[in-house]
Structures are given as C-alpha cells and as structure tokens.
Amino acid sequence: MQSKSDENKIDVSTRIRYCDHIPIHSTDYTEESMFFEPSNGMRPSPLQHNPLNALVCPRPIGWISSIGVGGAVNLAPFSYFNAVSADPPCVMFAPNAASSEGEKDTYRNVVEIPEFVVNLVSVQLAQKMNQTSTSFGYDINEFEACGLTPISSKLIRPPRVEESKAALECTVYDVVHLPIGTDGRKSHVVVGEVVGIHIDDELIVAGRIDERRLNSIARLGYFNYATLGAILEIPRP
Ligand SMILES: Cc1cc2nc3c(=O)[nH]c(=O)nc-3n(C[C@H](O)[C@H](O)[C@H](O)COP(=O)(O)O)c2cc1C
Questions:
Q1: Could you report the per-residue pLDDT of 104-126, keeping only the tens digit for each?
Q2: What is the phi/psi pair of residue 59, to 5°?
Q3: Is any atom of ligand 1 closer than 6 Å to the C-beta of 92?
Q4: pTM here?
Q5: From the CA of 108, how far away is ligand 1's center (Å)?
Q6: Which of 13, 89, 198, 211 is surrounded by the most beta carbons within 10 Å?
C-alpha cells in the first residue's frame, strides 16, 4: 500500500551525521539499575519475557472489526492501539504478524478494504474480547464463533459490535511499515481517520461522557488487565 507518510520521512542517517559532534551523554552511571539494548535480545537475565508490554501500560484496547473483498468479516483486539489526534480525530493500531510468513487477518482486510471499526471494550465484554483473539482461520467470522452481534456501520463496510457501548467508524489514512522484528515478523501501524462515532445514550451525563459508565478495560503486561481505578481531575495550569 502506498504510504502518505513517505513524503515526510525523516532521513535518520543524515540526522545522525549532523549530530556527530554532540556527545550522547557524560553521566557516570554508578547505580545498579538495569539497562539493555533490544538489538541484543529482549529477555536479558533475569527477565523471562519481553518487558515492553508491562512497561508501557495500561494500554487501551481497540477491538477492530474489518472485512475483506471476499466478504470475510474479522474481529480482533489490539492493545497497540490509541487515539493519536482529537481534531482531526485519528486513531492507530499495530498488527504484528504472528510468524515470519503470515500477516494478521485484520491487516489483510484493511489492505483490501481500507476501512475498520474500533469497538470499545467495557469490562463486561472482556471475556468475549479475549475469545476473539483466538487464531481462527481467515474465513472464520469471530462474531459468529464468539457469540457477538454484528450490526451495520453507517458509513463504512465492516460491521460493528452491537454489544459495545461506543464505536468509531474509520477509514485508513496511512500505513507505516515498522522494521522487521528479530524473528522475521512484520509489523505495521495502521492510522485511521474517524469518520463516524457511535455513543450509547447511557454514557452521556450532563453533556459529557461518563468514563465510569463506559468502564473500559485496559491491557497490562503478560495476561494482566486493569480496570478503572481512582479518577483524578487535574485542571491545566
Ligand atoms: C488484549 C489483547 C491485545 C492484543 N493486542 C495486539 C496488538 O496490539 N497487535 C497484534 O498484532 N496482536 C494483538 N493481539 C493478538 C491478536 O488479537 C490475535 O493475534 C488475533 O488473533 C489477531 O486476529 P486476526 O489475525 O484475525 O487479525 C492482542 C490480543 C489480546 C487478547
């Protein structure tokens, strides 16, 4: 897929040459805190797993529905997901191939039909959301396999999850291809422009979204999730 971001790509090699005279750092590290370079492996002792998911968390979950040209509907959760701009409203999610050969079905679909829905995941939907992460075959419809109700979107082709209290209809704005992973896996960042927003009436209280009513679940590291804890209101200075 042609990438719009190619036009604005930063030439990192030139930048590094330009900065050569600036020392990287001059601090003498005396503390015993852990430091490692991912290019040498993501599990240096005593870490048993890649720590990134447990360090960059909690992450919201985008439950992405998509459809391919042959009509194959897909639904899968992505926690490498976030809103990246409020106006214009844009979101991103990152499908990371499960092996060096294949691509995620969701990625295949959004390349074929550049549209997707972000269904928001309330705590009550956590188990169903998790079920849809099963690696079903391309032709298996996760709505049917996991007992969820597809409902038509207003502006785009993929259906949305009726059980979700909010959903964002998106068109693909751009796809950024990340460097190939150490084990040969391909990863991409799909950026979407939000073209339609569904909000269950019960979420709106005094003209605002009540985050507690949406009650979104968030992803931590390993098999851990977080639910909404204390909410702090901190006005801007
Ligand atoms: C909570 C959760 C978050 C996930 N986040 C991602 C993610 O950000 N990127 C990714 O490639 N896979 C992620 N996965 C795994 C995919 O959901 C899983 O591989 C799914 O089968 C992909 O479906 P597809 O091949 O039908 O697109 C996540 C799974 C769970 C349970």
A1: 999 999 999 999 999 999 999 99
A2: -115, 140
A3: no
A4: 0.93
A5: 14
A6: 198
